[in-house]
Design brief:
CATH superfamily: P-loop containing nucleotide triphosphate hydrolases
Strand order of the largest sheet: 2-3-1-4-7
CATH topology: Rossmann fold
Number of strands: 7
Bound molecules: adenosine monophosphate
Radius of gyration: 17 Å
Length: about 220
């Protein structure tokens, strides 16, 4: 059976950055619904067009769209390797539907890692975040600067600030997180699969804490 993990936590907490490292280390495919949606937006697919308005407002994309994406993605891969879900599920109905989906594949969740960070630090990380619109690599102007200013290390594309990382939208996303996603903490605590991770400090320090946690599973 593969390793099935969920990275839970507010936007800007470093889930995606750590998911990259964990995915490479344990050879578990990362499934980020945010990345899949942004790909759809960039390509101008019907799904991307529908999702864009919600994303620009900092709201959640409706559950049926998200579940469609996740089902397609799971169907196209070898499930035995397991999965690392980054930014999914984000609502209780999504979590319920994921549970049913995993059951139908005779899989179960190994662990939900909840990233914990102060609001002040979250806002700082989000405001300095820069993204590659082509390969989805993520940088930060202070804590993870690209080698060439404004340019992706991996593919050389000009970096952008995500529309939804503008200060007005960040506020909305944090409220959406508290109302719609934070209830999943108790949801997974009740299932005895939740571990909290201190997400403060440098990327490397967080990664060491995370690897220690995962190695103990
Ligand atoms: P992220 O990259 O995870 O911060 O996601 C960016 C945006 O995509 C979110 O603010 C939502 O609008 C949308 N999104 C990503 N994942 C989900 C999800 N699981 N459910 C609903 N909306 C999502």
């Amino acid at each position: 059976m593969g390793l099935n993990l969920i990275f839970l936590g507010p936007p800007g907490v470093g889930k995606g950055t750590q998911a990259e490292a964990v995915s490479a280390h344990f050879l578990v495919p990362k499934l980020s619904t945010g990345d899949l949606l942004r790909e759809g937006v960039a390509k101008g697919t019907p799904l991307g067009k529908e999702a864009k308005a919600y994303m620009d407002r900092g709201e959640l994309v409706p559950d049926p769209i998200i579940m469609g994406l996740v089902r397609d993605r799971l169907a196209g891969t070898n499930c035995r390797e397991g999965f690392l879900f980054d930014g999914f599920p984000r609502t209780v109905p999504q979590a319920d539907q994921l549970a049913a989906l995993l059951e139908s594949m005779e899989q179960s969740l190994n662990r939900v890692v909840c990233f914990v960070l102060s609001r002040e630090e979250i806002v700082r990380r989000l405001s300095g975040r820069r993204n590659c619109p082509r390969c989805q690599a993520v940088f930060h102007v202070e804590s993870r600067p690209p080698k060439q200013e404004g340019q992706c290390d991996k593919c050389g594309t000009a970096l952008v600030q995500r529309n939804d990382d503008q200060p007005e939208t960040v506020e909305a996303r944090l409220i959406v997180y508290e109302n719609q996603t934070a209830p999943l903490i108790q949801y997974y605590k009740n299932q005895n699969v939740l571990s909290e991770l201190d997400a403060s400090g440098p990327i490397q320090a967080v990664q060491e804490r995370l690897m220690a946690l995962l190695s103990s599973l």
